[in-house]
Structures are given as structure tokens and as C-alpha cells.
Amino acid sequence: MGSLRRTEKAPLQPPPITGRITTRGIGVVLPAFNEEAVIAETVGKCAETLAVIAPDYEIIVVDDGSHDGTGAIADALAADDPRIHVVHNQPNRGYGGALLAGFAVVSKDLTFYMDSDGQFDIRDLVKLLELREQGYRAVLGYRAQRQDSTMRLLNAWGWNLLVSRLFGLHVRDIDCAFKLYDTELIRAFDVHSEGAVISTEMLVKLIRMGIPYTEIPVQHLPRLHGKATGAKLRVIVRAFGELLRLRSRLSAWAPTEPLTAGAVAAPSAAPSRVIRG
Description:
Blueprint: E1 7-9, E2 26-32, H1 39-53, E3 57-64, H2 70-80, E4 84-89, H3 94-103, E5 110-114, H4 125-133, E6 138-143, H5 150-167, E7 178-182, H6 183-189, H7 198-208, E8 213-218, H8 233-250, E9 273-276
Parallel strand pairs: 1-9, 2-3, 2-5, 3-4, 6-8, 8-9
Antiparallel strand pairs: 5-7, 6-7
């Protein structure tokens, strides 16, 4: 699908929370591994924001085999609020496996996912929902000013370059964990990747299906608690193996079922665009 990219200015600060953005139901998936120091705060901020901007919501915390109190804290939160649900992965399934476990239980029309480590601001979801209401059935956040170590930044640059070349992806931040999709799309993707390439698989299938999408900058905050695992050598080696297997699987992939048009029509020119900060 040929696509027209349009560049616009967008503020990096989260927009004010002034009222409901959508009447659609939204399921928020929060993968969590050893996040006991921040999981309650993350869930609390999500619930506070969603209650205003998208009152028909559910929050799904995926405790991905944590060794600390993450699961117990999440269970306590769920006991106090029926809109909070907890999935326990035992053993740890990795980032992709955590997302898949969360996606499997989403019951709302929209699916949003965000890391639970405190490096994103849920208030930025306002911008994504506004774009969904304009007709973009996939809205991809990208980290405008990524707050990671130099080594992680170099690893990410190399990974994005490799993935872009292998699959012809022209997405600014492939693995940014701040994305909004129609749940129908998530189901149609029929994703199988349980590791680091899950975002790549979803994006390749999105583009092959010809679905209009847009990209927008979001805040990325310094990590104050816990440790990231993505830069470990064993994780990197495993990711390369997953990438090669994914390329083989996708060589013959095509969507098996037609999609409905969605409650909101696609933008008139069905463009894909980047809104830059």
C-alpha cells in the first residue's frame, strides 16, 4: 500500500485531562516483570485518567513470572476494583508472551498497551484517542526524547535499522510500548511471537493489510525503579533468532478474513502520517 506521510507539529507535554475523548470501550494491557516498586502507582494513574477520558475501560496487568511482590500487589488492586484484572504467567514468557496473554482477555473495542515501569505518562493516551476518533485504526506512539542509557540507545538504533531493512518497515519507533489498536486488528494479526519481535510482527501485518495508521510523539521518562532487561546479551541473541524465524513465517502470510470498516470511517485519503514534535 502506498502511503502519504504528513508532518505536523505536536506538543510533547501531555494534554490536559478535560473530559471524555471516546465512547468506545478500551482495554489497557500492562505487562509487568518485577515492578513491585511502581505497579500500584502505574495502575492508579491509569484508572484515574481513564475514568475521565474513556470511562468504559478495563486494566489488565500481566504479571510475567515476577520474582517479587508484583503479582500480589496487582491481585490486591483487582480485589478492590472490578475493572482491574490480573493475568499470571508462570513461568515467565517474555515481553511478547506477556502482551499476548493480555490481548487474549481484552473484551473492549480498543486495545492499548504501555510498559508498567513508569517511563510513560498515561495522559498521552488522550492524543492517541483523538487520532483514533479521526479514523486511524492504529495509532503508534514514538519516544520523542528517549530516556535510556547510551548503550541501549545504540542497541535500539541498530535493531531498528536491521528490522527496517529486513521487512521494509518505515516506522519511526518500532518497539515503542505506547500503541493503540482496534481490538479487531489485534485478533486479525494472529500474532505468534512471544519475544522481542512482537511489535515487528504486528506492524508488518498492519501494513500488509493496508490499514491507515499514524505516529505521534509521546513523552519518555527516566526509569526510577527496577532494571531493564532488553540489553542483556542473552536477550539480544534470542531476539536475533526470533527475527529470522519471523521473517520465514511472514514470507507467505496473508490475512485470512476481511475486516469490517470500523465504527469510524478511515481518513479520506487513507494516509499514514507522522506527527512530529
